[in-house]
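Per your request, structure below.
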């Protein structure tokens, strides 16, 4: 059925756009669910548990659908998993813990399309065009406006913030690099099989890091698996990983890392809207302007570049 749909260019293009929109909305909603979960238990532990649980669902999906899990690129699969999940989450959570959340979000989200484009160009997987550069610049401006009241007093906190933001940059580079390394995998294997291996490998390695660096007591476990902690973890697993990550890997194959990574200019709009509606957070004129600019930046390049006839 999917092949028949994808055989019609107009329908296939609409399907990819709707999948992108669904992924961006789901990942925008994961921000508040991640807060609920990490309020209950240490963040790296939460990330590890999330990925291990997600791998169980992906594994069951593969078994029921008789999806092939074997690959001739095992070393690439391990490297991609460690970059996309282990390296990204460990550095990102440490960086967010040592810098204002809004400022960390600006650095992380504005760099995702930039680094995806640059690393992809180095691997011959992406092209650098004036339209893409303009979209990245617009999106970065929009992010700054959107999070302008959420950056905290970075100047006063000094070196600690600098180290935290440096960790966020490393995390974003790890993610972008892993996405590019993953692209040949989703050409060879079904995206759900790649998702199974990446969540399993990433989850186990993150739990190992958590065991060495964090204290996870019985109280934290009880809080994580009850009430808001469980609701947050449940949405991270079912929405963020099972839906969002599998769609992202499919779009990575269909669109490439740069265009798939444009969720970085859409998901924050959803996250801030949820914060305003659900948590009563402040929202002003410049934040609204930032939202509009980010959505315009996405619209500018979400469609493929036109190739002139020779």
């Amino acid at each position: 059925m999917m092949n028949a749909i994808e055989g019609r260019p107009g329908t296939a293009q609409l399907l990819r756009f709707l999948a992108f929109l669904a992924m961006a909305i789901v990942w925008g909603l994961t921000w508040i669910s991640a807060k609920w979960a990490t309020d209950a238990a240490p963040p790296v532990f939460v990330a590890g548990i999330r990925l291990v649980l997600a791998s169980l669902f992906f594994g069951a999906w593969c078994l029921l659908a008789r999806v092939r899990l074997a690959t001739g690129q095992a070393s690439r699969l391990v490297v991609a998993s460690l970059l996309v999940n282990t390296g990204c989450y460990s550095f990102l959570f440490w960086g967010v813990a040592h810098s204002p959340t809004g400022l960390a979000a600006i650095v992380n989200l504005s760099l995702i399309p930039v680094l995806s484009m640059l690393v992809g160009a180095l691997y011959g997987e992406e092209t650098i065009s004036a339209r893409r550069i303009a979209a990245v610049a617009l999106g970065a401006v929009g992010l700054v406006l959107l999070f302008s009241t959420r950056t905290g007093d970075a100047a006063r906190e000094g070196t600690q913030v600098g180290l935290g933001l440096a960790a966020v940059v490393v995390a974003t580079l790890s993610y972008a690099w892993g996405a590019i390394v993953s692209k040949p995998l989703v050409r060879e294997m079904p995206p759900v099989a790649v998702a199974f291996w990446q969540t399993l490998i990433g989850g186990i390695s993150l739990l190992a890091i958590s065991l060495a660096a964090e204290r996870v007591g019985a109280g934290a476990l009880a809080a994580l698996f009850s009430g808001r902690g469980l609701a947050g973890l449940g949405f991270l697993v079912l929405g963020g990983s099972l839906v969002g990550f599998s769609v992202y890997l499919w779009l990575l194959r269909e669109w490439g890392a740069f265009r798939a990574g444009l969720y970085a200019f859409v998901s924050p709009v959803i996250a801030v809207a949820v914060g305003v509606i659900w948590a009563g957070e402040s929202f002003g004129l410049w934040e609204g302007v930032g939202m509009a600019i980010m959505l315009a930046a996405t619209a500018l390049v979400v469609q493929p570049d036109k190739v002139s006839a020779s």
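The first helix runs from residue 2 to 6.

Regards,
D.
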